Each structure stands twice: as structure tokens, then as C-alpha cells.
Amino acid sequence: MARVAADSELSLPDQRLVAALQWDGRIGAERAARVLGLSPATVRRRLHALTGDGTARVVLSPTARTGNGGPVGALFLRIRVLRGKLDTIVAALAAREDVPFIDITTAGDEIFAVARTEPGSRDPLVFRQLPSTQAVTSVESSTLLNVFRLTSEWRHQVLTAEECAELGGGASGAPEPAASPGDPAQDPLDRSLLAALAPDARLPVAALAARTGHPETTVRRRLARLAEQGLLTTQVLVDHRRLGLAIEAKLLLQVTPDHLAAAGQALADHPSVHGAFATSGPSNLHAAAYFRDLAALYGFLSRDLTGLGITHLETAVVSRAAKRAAALIPG
Questions:
Q1: pLDDT tens digit sequence for 65-110
Q2: pLDDT in tens, 1-43
Q3: Beta 110-116 vs 101-105: how paired, if at all?
């Protein structure tokens, strides 16, 4: 039997199952089967295949919003390096726990990354470590000011509005912004549940009960409470190419202040955009989006961005995602 290419497009039923997981990462086979019009046995088999080989991973997604709804501390980095030194710098950045996201663009000497930091701090990575590296030719840094859309809130557009509504998307089928987290001072059981779910958010209640030593009824009740508090947000990690979206683009926009909020929300509402953030710096609005092909990207740039008060735009096409961790801002 021929080996399926690692980046081959998934079948439509599998894509629809991935989309259902985006709405509810812990959805059961019976409920998914009812919504998608499949048999429970088929759903169990396809879920096992998708998650068993790592094609799709459902993980706990820490929110990028603080308790008051504002953003946590993060920097967007644009790093240019000497040609021939790209892999060395990428490897060094990928080894850092405070750098959860790294993308390489088609320019061949350019890296986009996200770094966790204390808001307003003199971050050592930006002020000392990167500038002192001879292979780095320039570093541009901007601070996250406001979150309009997170990757955990992005939905693959292969379900009907009715199916989305049944999965929790409201009557319009549009994703709701992630809830602001509740009180982070959970008791030991809450912390142990979140720790167990972080790498595999689909762990069954029975497995969680066995790990924590608490009854299944208690675990089920705590999970419901954590979800209500906005502390149980899941994210599906899947290569966008497997969903038929061959192109990922980074957008750096300059928007007039009177249009900033509206432009950010318009980007967040666009089905192609999986990340939208207001930032400091000349480009005061950053976005990331998936497209089926370059023609779709061109249509987005030439049609969908008009009337948003944009005075300048840079577009960078991603050639490779070097690191995508389920933490902070995936985009």
C-alpha cells in the first residue's frame, strides 16, 4: 500500500471531524456522529486514526487574556539573519521555553517569532542575546497590546451553520472570543487536572480519576466548573496543509487610530484569519491567515482589506512552521 504523504489533504469527513474537535475538543463519538451524520463506530475509528498518528492533537490552550480581559505579556519578533545561518538561529530559538512560536518566511533569511515576557520589561533576548549574535542582522520587536483573535478560536469552514450551532457556536455559527479566565488559584485537584490535560485534552474522565485518586463524579464536576471559568479551552494542533489550506501569510498593517479597533475586529471575523492582534510599533496591527492558494491570498488583499483605514501593508508568506506550542498566542 502506498504511504500517504505527511502533508496530503485529509478527506472531507476527516476535515469535518477536525472542525468538530475545534468546537469541542472533548466531544464524544456519539455526539460527534449525531452532528456530522456518521455512525459512532466510524467516528471512533477516524478519531483513533487522526489522534493516534499525531495528525491532530487536542491540547489545553492557555488563554492569552488576563482576568481583566487584557493580553498577557508577549513580544512579536521579526528577525533577519545571515544567509546560511537560518537553521542555527531557528534551532537556538526553538530550544527556549519562552519562545513558543517560530515561523520561517519564503524570504529565506527572515524569522517571525513570539516570545513571552513581562510587559514593559527590558527583555534580555531582545536587548542582549539576539543583538550580540553575529548571525543576526536585525531585530524588530513589538509588544502585544490587544487580542482580537487567537488560533484556538479559529474554525475550519467545512461545517454548516446548523452544525456549528449544535456544537456550541451560536445561531450564526461564528466562534465566540475565548472567555477571560477565572480565579487562577485553583486547589490541588484543579491544578492536577489541568496539568494532565495540557498535552492531551481528550483524556477520559476515568483516566483522570485514576491519576488524581478522586471519584469520576468529582472529576466530571470539576471539569465542568473549569470550563465555565474559561480555564478549559482546547486547541487542535493540525498542519493547515492537511486541511487543504496550502498558504499561510503573516500580515503587518499600519492602521489609523480611529480605525484600529474596527479593523482588528474585521480581521478577527474573517474566516481565513487565525490570529489578529493590536501591537506597538509602526505596524500596529498583526494578523496571520490561512488560504487555499495564492489566488485566494490575492483576493483577500485586494478585496477584503479595503475600507479598513490601512495606510501600509506588508505580507510575508510562511514557508515552514518551525515551532508551534500550545501556549500563549498561536499566530
A1: 444 444 568 999 999 999 899 999 999 999 999 999 999 999 999 9
A2: 333 455 699 999 999 999 999 999 999 999 999 999 999 999 9
A3: antiparallel
Instruction: Judge whether 182 and 231 are in contact, CB under 8 Å.
Output: yes
Confidence of residue 178 (pLDDT cuts 50, 70, 90): low
Residue (of 15, 23, 17) closest to 174 by Cα position? 23
Ranges assigned E (strand) in the chain: 56-60, 74-81, 101-105, 110-116, 136-149, 234-238, 247-255, 273-279, 285-291, 310-324
Residue 157 · residue 91 · CB < 8 Å = no
What is the rounded distance in angstroms from the CA atom of residue 246 to the CA atom of residue 108?
18
Tell me the chain's radius of gyration from C-alpha atoms: 20
Inter-residue contact 153 to 269 (CB < 8 Å): no
Q: Give strand pairing partners of 111.
A: 79, 104
C-alpha cell at 153: 478560536
Q: Which helix (H) or strand (E) holds 228?
A: helix 216-228
Nine-digit cell string for 234: 482546547
Decide if 281 contacts 142 (C-beta within 8 A): yes
Name the pTM for this structure.
0.87
Nine cell digits for residue 239: 498542519
For 169, what's the count of Cα atoms within 13 Å in the CB-facing half-sphere?
Answer: 25
Specify whether the CB–CB gap between 324 and 150 falls below 8 A: no
Note the helical H segments in 230-331.
260-269, 294-299
Structural domains of the chain, ranges and CATH numbers in brackets? 74-152+241-324 (3.30.70.3460), 183-232 (1.10.10.10)
